[in-house]
Specification:
single chain, alpha/beta, 5-stranded mixed β-sheet, about 40% helix, about 20% strand
């Protein structure tokens, strides 16, 4: 029995030694999708751990640049992943995991009548978007308003969330009547409290949401395996379930 106990102890120790943990930043727009993908991936890797951190891509990029130990970085656009590579801080080439979609969102369906152009109406006291300084969906929202030629007319009524999740919350809480937000946060997960319509994609730059393994994790087997899973057909189906469009296959 004593020998058996020793053997079991050695086996348990060996499992712990081979288990890995990685720390992953995920843009708030991909929160629901990447959480489900992570859970599916780990079903066959019971001893490994993936810690997800959600927020605005721009803020997380600055954190990484200042030394925060992210092992993987999932941006809401292509810019930040490319910048990480240019900084010499990537352990892999950037890869597109999903194409983002923007939606006009309101609790009252009647407020969606007339689409984006109707936002010039003074009945909209507050229009919610994510901050374009740190959130790619905020950049897209500004592009949309500019495409319709109404940005300057509504600029003073815009309220900005620190990330796209907060922009959705502003509408849900009544702090804003309407918002330009990520479609992916309305389709599944917590579920939308209100109604929405998707925006013509020609009105904003393509949101090629991309990720990289960071230099810190360039030798991590877990990071490499998760990266492969994220671009698999199974993961693609999950992204599409949450309202993302699939990137073009190479």
């Amino acid at each position: 029995m004593k020998k058996l106990g020793i053997l079991l102890g050695i086996l348990a120790l060996s499992v712990q030694l081979y288990a890995e943990k990685i720390n992953v930043f995920v843009a708030a727009s991909a929160r629901h999708a990447v959480t489900e993908i992570k859970d599916e991936f780990l079903k066959n890797r019971k001893n490994d751990e993936i810690e997800l951190n959600f927020g605005a891509s721009g803020k997380a990029y600055q954190q990484l640049k200042n030394g925060f130990p992210y092992d993987m970085f999932f941006s809401a656009d292509a810019k930040y992943a490319a910048q990480i590579e240019q900084d010499g801080n990537a352990g892999s080439a950037p890869a597109i995991y999903a194409m983002g979609v923007v939606a006009l969102y309101a609790l009252d369906e009647k407020l969606l009548e007339g689409g984006v152009e109707s936002l010039v109406n003074e009945k909209f006291k507050h229009i919610s978007i994510a901050s374009p300084k740190v959130a790619p969906y905020g950049v897209a929202a500004v592009e949309i308003l500019q495409s319709y030629g109404i940005f300057e007319k509504v600029e003073k009524r815009i309220v900005m969330g620190d990330n796209i999740s907060q922009a959705v919350h502003f509408v849900d809480s009544g702090a804003a009547e309407i918002g330009l937000v990520a479609y992916s946060l309305l389709r599944q997960g917590d579920g939308a409290k209100g109604k929405y319509i998707t925006i013509d994609p020609s009105k904003y730059s393509p949101m090629a949401q991309s990720f990289v393994i960071t230099k810190k994790a360039k030798d991590s087997d877990l990071a490499k395996a998760f990266a492969e899973y994220v671009v698999s057909d199974r993961a693609r189906a999950i992204f599409e379930k949450y309202g993302f469009n699939a990137p073009a296959k190479k």
